[in-house]
Amino acid sequence: MKIRINHRNSERGTVLMVTLFIAVMFGIFLFSYLNIVGQQKSVVSRSQAWNAALAIAEAGGEEALAQLNPGTPLPAILDRTANGWGNPSGGIYGPVSRSLSGGSYSVCFTTNIWPVIYCTGTVSVASARGTLTRVVRIGTTNVPLFSVALGAKYNLNFNGNNVNTDSFNSYDTNAWTSSTPQGTNGSIASITGVVSVGNANVHGSVYLGPSATDSIKNNGFVTGGTYNDFNADFPDVVLPANTASWLVPLPVPTIVDGVTYLYAFFSSGDYQIMGALSGNIYVGTNATVRLLINGSASPGAIRVAGPGLNSGKLTLYLNGPSFSLSGSSSVDGGVANNLTYLGTSNNTSITMSGNAEFIGTIYAPDANLTLSGGGNNNVDVVGSMITASTTINGHFNFHFDEALLSNGPARAYIANSWGEL
Hints:
By secondary structure, this protein is α/β, with parallel strands linked by helices. The chain has 3 helices and 30 strands. It has a 23-stranded parallel β-sheet that branches. A 5-stranded antiparallel β-sheet has the order 1-2-3-4-30. Strands 15-16 form a two-stranded antiparallel ribbon. The radius of gyration is 34 Å and the shape is elongated.
């Protein structure tokens, strides 16, 4: 009897084992690959959520800044409780929560003079079946309204050969004098117009908005250079809501230091003059006065007692078409911070001629400012002026008071620090 071994069945078994082994290996490889893909998807999903949470948190910061900067015409009337924010609790406004397509945020800010904003962005992470949050802290500061010697919405035109800008700090010297050291912050700026420096000497910089241009002649110079990134907004001035109740002062001539003033204010208060003004105005020591003139004004002198700790303070609203100084007229706030001229949209013209001098600030974004005269002498203008346009014909020295940067009125809040908590 002869026994025969079936090699074919043995070969089939080997093939089956090899096939099974390969299938198992492919399965392991496939499982590992799918696991890697899943992990990568999870990592990508979390990374996207991580970035999205920060963007959403910053959106909350933008809302808080919009709440602090409502675009209200000057003087700013800021109602921090508006738009659903409500009254503060524990030194905090908010929190306010918003839902967006990619997540949500919660934002609040402090009641400080320079508010601190806290915003939390939350995003869902589908792969982790959870949420991811990021918290951002934003510090703010005020942008000064008066940051240049001369600013304009449109054109700045310096004619003549004796126009000079420079700067000083009244905090250091108390008041400008002819011997005050000359600083180099006497900058000028335009949002959309043409800055014609001409032959002027600008001890500072020229700041231009994106569409503004400048020109300079051979004898002119600018020490700080020219920049095309001036980002500012000069909103209209609106009158305070309660001006109808402001007192109408009696014109009682009063002599102070040999000068006769038709209106003299020795105590704080709010007043209005119903028509045009042609008389002199005096504000005494320790008096804080708001004065509305409902017509044109051509005073011979406006004086605020000071400078010093007991200085007076005047905010003058011009609601008429024109304001003019001529001859030896003067506006003397002692220091620039103590006299603020605010021209409403009705105020379209400001003129200074002869040897008229000015110490204070002017904010009249709808008025065309014209300065002419000086004769053989240079006329000193101390402080800052912001108007629709400015034309200078004559000999003028503009001395920007750097104290306005830290102690003057503000036009907006901006972020000055940013950090993730």
